[in-house]
Write a structure and sequence with these properties.
Keywords: Signal. By secondary structure, this protein is mainly beta. The chain contains 2 helices and 12 strands, in the order αββββββαββββββ. It is globular, with a radius of gyration of 16 Å.
Length: 232
């Protein structure tokens, strides 16, 4: 899921502060889970009804008041990345398997075609992700999640550049919830980086609905170490 985030950052879209208006979500979107990672990010996951083709929505709140919104279809394929004014426009067309296919068959595949527009210019990008399931599980917030490992390649045909990412995601079939557990980037020839899940909260649990990042931030609320946009 976060590989779609890389589309925005590699394209050079700095995320402006004060993005509260992004979070005026449709009435049919219900909060399912809140995730905190170790890169100063609080991520709130929603399931939506009456907003076809959008079925899932993720609201990301970063240090310093920055934020963005990702929308997904019924198979957890990306549809759009919403940013504050000046942050660019990111539209995606996804094809491929639902994550539960990997649990059932051992492997699954997803492709996302993206159009990235900013300052009157646009470029295309393609992300291909392959999930693999070997039976591993992890218990979080009282629920058992299937651990799917993945490898992805994000290609920009106009420049010929590629970003390779690997790691793991956690999938719970009852909640139809897919969250990032570990993301490891090759850094496009530079210094690579890792992003790790630190906590997950479900309805009624401590931290559910939080929008303030808790981990990996300076006292000011900014990221304490170089984060994703430093590899744009």
């Amino acid at each position: 899921m976060k590989t779609t985030l890389a589309l925005a950052l590699i394209a050079g879209a700095a995320l402006p502060a004060k993005a509260e208006n992004l979070f005026q979500r449709p009435a049919g979107c219900v909060l399912v889970a809140t995730v905190q990672d170790d890169h100063c990010a609080a991520l709130n996951y929603f399931r939506c009804a009456g907003t076809d083709p959008v079925v899932f929505r993720m609201e990301a709140s970063y240090g310093g008041g920055k934020g963005e919104v990702h929308t997904f279809d019924a198979n957890h394929g990306g549809i759009e990345i919403l940013t504050p004014p000046g942050g660019g426009e990111f539209r995606l067309r996804a094809t491929g398997d639902h994550p539960r296919v990997a649990v059932e068959r051992g492997t699954a595949r997803k492709t996302e075609q993206a159009t990235i527009s900013r300052d009157g210019k646009s470029q295309q990008a393609t992300m291909v992700m392959v999930y693999t399931y070997s039976g591993e599980t992890r218990k979080l917030a009282g629920e058992v999640f299937h651990r799917l490992t993945y490898d992805s390649t994000l290609t920009f045909p106009q420049s010929g550049s590629e970003l390779h990412t690997s790691g793991s995601v956690l999938f719970n079939d009852r909640l139809d919830l897919l969250v990032n557990e570990l993301e490891v980037s090759d850094g496009q020839g530079g210094a690579g980086r890792q992003i790790k899940l630190k906590s997950l909260a479900l309805d009624g649990q401590k931290g559910f609905g939080a929008t303030k990042p808790r981990f990996g931030c300076h006292a000011s609320g900014e990221l304490a170490v170089p984060r994703r946009e430093d590899h744009a």
